[in-house]
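dude i think i finally got it to work??
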Amino acid sequence: MSKRTPKTPSIKSLPKCVEAVFNFILSDPDHKFFRVASKLMPCDAFSGKYEDVLDGEQLALTDMWTTLEKHERVRIRRINHLYPEDADNWVYIFLERVAGASDFPPFYDKSTADRLELSNSISKLSRALSRLLIANKLDCHLVHVNGAILNGIEVYEDFVEKNQERINLKGNKKIKFSEVLKHISDRAIQKISEVSTNGNAGPNVAAIRFARIIDWYNVEWYEKPLYSVTATATNALYGTKYCEADIYALVTHKS
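look at this
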């Protein structure tokens, strides 16, 4: 029996709608998708040219975009819509999902023990600051005003008595800064507690989380997991070397 060679991405051109989106985004370093687009472009993003000879990673990225376009056409037909040749919304949607899945607060990547320590520190420091303000009569009321000169959140006690009376007559709600501080602290602790506590933090924790989120999006949008797409996007953003089997293992065994 002859030895089977590994499957490699076929050489394809980028879909025109993808190329148009990348040309637009990469022309503006301030674009909100510039970071992810520069990593998912299968060529030198700043050369303005699409190379005929690409390395393995670039070939995989090209294959990723052609695969996505193919499944987008299937999705459009499934919902009984025509697929216009210049349709590019799906490209932006995918980039938005990639950006969202790769932009998590630093505390997400902490171990369970480190997240607990962070929560305890936030609680301790916020209570200490609140006690200091109250004990020294430095606590104050925050109020939202809509004036010609002052428009926004202001300290109620800093207004002269006449202006305080006007604020009271308008029924503007006031809240103590110490109460706001407690609310912010409680919110932060709640957010930290919502992070999965399975396993410990590791070098690939962000990549694994990203892969699972993108896999979920693909299944919801295309009704297929598209493991090769997820592997390629994850490798491009995080420098991993995942294959389809790795992604399958990550999304089906969430331990």
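The two ends are 39 Å apart (CA to CA).
im so relieved honestly
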